[in-house]
Amino acid sequence: SSVFAHIVQAPEDPILGVTVAYNKDPSPVKLNLGVGAYRTEEGKPLVLNVVRQAEQLLVNDSSRVKEYLPIVGLADFNKLSAKLILGADSPAVQDNRVTTVQCLSGTGSLRVGAEFLARHYHERTIYIPVPTWGNHPKVFTLAGLSVKSYRYYDPTTRGLNFQGLLEDLQSAPSGAIVLLHACAHNPTGVDPTPQQWEQIRQLMRSKALLPLFDSAYQGFASGSLDADAQSVRMFVADGGECLVAQSYAKNMGLYGERVGALSIVCRAADVAGRVESQLKLVIRPMYSNPPIHGASIVATILKDRNMFHEWTLELKAMADRIISMRQQLFDALRARGTPGDWSHIIKQIGMFTFTGLNSEQVTFMRKEYHIYMTSDGRISMAGLSSRTVPHLTDAIHAAVT
Ligand code: PLP
To answer: Which family does it belong to (predicted)?
Structure first.
């Protein structure tokens, strides 16, 4: 008999498992609002025009070879990624006190950052918001950090529990790591205001708490790359240190290319150099070096003024379509007279709406309406279109009445 006979069936991933169930459903009206991937008004995946252009340039360039990249990835990509998140004229970048390494999308960047911290940082506790992206606690625990939480979302107001957040960070041990969503908090769509960010910054700096930013949605929240990076830039402008994990999955639609970056902002260039040398020791035995194709696409776009501009337009169009879906769903529920205050649908930011539907209502909508979402009631607004808003409205209406 098999030496693996004792192995028990593992559960599906709570987010990716939604798509597995969706794929098995034969209904023609089925709707997948589970995974956070952009869809067009026709419900199709989108490859940006500017990405196609960049790929064409790469294909036509016969000087390009398929050699290994360095352990830290493509140099141009790293420099341009740091400037994208920290600002084109960031003094920290100019002073060479930022080390940036290309990693496997946002998840890989978080993992490399966490492994580095577990090995070299004096405080192994990381505070994550409640709720947060379901993969966060697993990534950090497996990297060797000890995961604790801070209050974030208030279900009664469907907004930020700012007082709870401040209290929990205030009572965290000095030096603890704090995970912050740079913008478009997943799953709640609730972000601090700039004034609240400033208070968080002051509190964290006064307690020497170390910020680890997860930036998976830069440009996707507001439509502006700079506006969505403000939280990170506040923490860099004060001269202090932080880590930033960037993903190009959503904002360039490069999901499956697995392209992202980890930046560690240090106080001085010599520190950054030594940090980078240790990041290489983390990466080399994990996957040796990152893939070349996705990073080449990103670097091609970021370094060309026209292509960069075209990207910002396409990004804005995606963000605007999501914002218009919020309005359409809100209007449809109001027109339908669905009980409840649904204004959070238009107040929340980014790819998701945290509807407030409970797990029974989610199950009901799946069974009766073939609408798929995570059991916490999170729906991906990017998976919705004008055509499917009425069906979703019917389902929500039936679920809450
Ligand atoms: N962080 C958050 C908050 C996310 O929502 C996601 C993707 O859903 C990621 C990180 C990482 O995604 P990826 O590894 O595909 O870049």
So the answer is: Belongs to the class-I pyridoxal-phosphate-dependent aminotransferase family.
